[in-house]
Every structure is written in C-alpha cells, then in structure tokens.
Design a protein that fits this description.
about 250 residues, alpha/beta, Rossmann fold, six-stranded mixed beta sheet, four-stranded antiparallel beta sheet, 10 strands, about 25% strand
Length: about 250
C-alpha cells in the first residue's frame, strides 16, 4: 500500500485499529497528558509531533500499558486494552519501540530477535522467525554478531526488528531515527514504508520534520500535554499555532 493509497482510505474510511479516547496521565501536580484523543486506521502511518515535554512519549506509554492513565480508554481492534499488562498488549498485536534502545550487549542479533519472538511462539518457531526478520531489516549478515558490536544504524534496525519479531499489527515508533545521518534516516524511512506495505500500521514520534512530512498520511501535534491539531501534513505544517509552538517562524512553507 502506497502513501497515497493509505491516504485515500485514511481519515474518512477504513477500520479503526487503535482508538485512544480522552487519555490523561498525571504525575503528582503535573498533567503530562491532558485529555488527548486520536484514532489510527489500519494501514496508516500517523505522525505524532510536538516540542520536548509535550507528552508524546508519555502518551505512548499510556497506550502501551507502561504507565497508569488518570482517565480515558484505549481500544485496539475494537477491544479495550487500558489496564492490560504490556506483554499482553504486545501479544494482541500492538507493540512499541523505545527512545532509549534496550539491548543486551552480550546477546547476538539472532538471540535478541529469537527472544522477542518468544512472546507468541515456541522456541523452534521463534528461531525461524528470527532469521526471516533479520532479512527483513537487513541484519541477516550479522545474525551472530553481539549487540555491543553493532553500529548505531544497525541498533536502530534491530529495535524495529525486535518489534517485528512479535508479529505486530501495529507499531508505536518512538524517535527511532534520532542520531542517524540523512542517508541512514532514509534507509529507515524505506524500511518503515516496506513494512507498511506488508500490512503493519504505524504511529510515529519523530522530530525530523522532513522525515515526518514525507512519511505520514496524517500528523497529530501535541503541546504541553494537549492535542493542538491534526490533519494532512501539508495543512498541519501551515497552521499558525503549529508554527508558533513548534516549528518556528523560520520554517520555509513549500
């Protein structure tokens, strides 16, 4: 499915895969997420942007079960998953990556992908899946390399590979391209597009505006814990509120 194909079936039609309604997360007196709602339809790539401290990662954590919500509900494939343990959410087909990559340095790529696949599969099946996922994220030539010896781009590919090994229907990607050079970033963009073509849906947090504009079917903007606006990339990037709180007056609007 191309970006244009997904857009055609995106905001106005198609199955709602993920629905987050009125999500709030409060830490003491700080409301990190303030009544945020969004839907993601099957086959979409939706970008989630906003300045540092806007609440994007906390919103991810609330959706995926890693923090407790103050209010709101989350539905995945029509079933409520708020209050469900993260590992069970993962088994149901919704998984995530992390801003700070979590790898075991002494494990090999093969062992890491096998461990991720065990969330659903037997050991024998997980070992087979590890090989196929390594090919998918272009790590098949490094299956027996320990994680401590991977380059940063390979670590990023492994982070996506770990998510894919759980056999997800949807992935929450949290700044997976941070620290990459432009050519490396484009490799990850192509990887995500390829995975979408294979049926995976994405909600993506990313600070690189060129990337998020080219990758996303829709963009949601957060600021100080609240949803500011959502819409097509070309509309969002021109919105005065977005320019004021996030993009800056110097942004050249094509």
């Amino acid at each position: 499915m191309s970006k244009s194909d997904a857009s055609a079936t995106g905001s106005d039609s198609g199955e709602i895969l993920l629905s987050a309604v009125d999500i709030s997360v409060q830490f003491g007196g700080l409301k990190a997420v303030d009544h945020v709602s969004l839907d993601v339809r099957r086959g979409e790539i939706v970008g989630l942007i906003g300045p540092n401290g806007a609440g994007k990662t906390t919103f991810f954590q609330a959706i995926s079960g890693f923090v407790r919500r103050t209010s709101g509900e989350v539905r995945f494939r029509g079933e409520r998953i708020d209050g469900v343990a993260p590992e069970e959410i993962c088994r149901r087909g919704l998984t995530r990556t992390f801003q700070i990559m979590e790898v075991f340095p002494s494990l090999t790529v093969r062992e890491t992908l096998t461990a991720a696949a065990l969330v659903r599969l037997s050991m024998a099946e997980a070992r087979k899946v590890a090989i196929s996922i390594a090919e998918l994220v272009r790590l098949d030539g490094k299956l027996d390399l320990t994680c401590r010896h991977l380059t940063l781009p390979d670590q990023k590919a492994l982070e996506i590979g770990k998510a894919m090994a759980t056999q997800p229907q949807m992935i929450l990607l949290d700044e997976v391209m941070a620290g990459l050079r432009p050519a490396e970033t484009q490799d990850v963009v192509r990887m995500i597009q390829n995975l979408r073509d294979r049926g995976v849906t994405f909600l993506v947090v990313e600070h690189n505006m060129d990337v998020i504009m080219s990758l996303s079917d829709r963009i949601v903007v957060m600021g100080t814990g609240r949803k500011i606006i959502e819409g097509a990339p070309e509309d969002v990037v021109r919105d005065p509120k977005v320019i004021e709180i996030y993009l800056g007056e110097e942004l050249e609007l094509a």
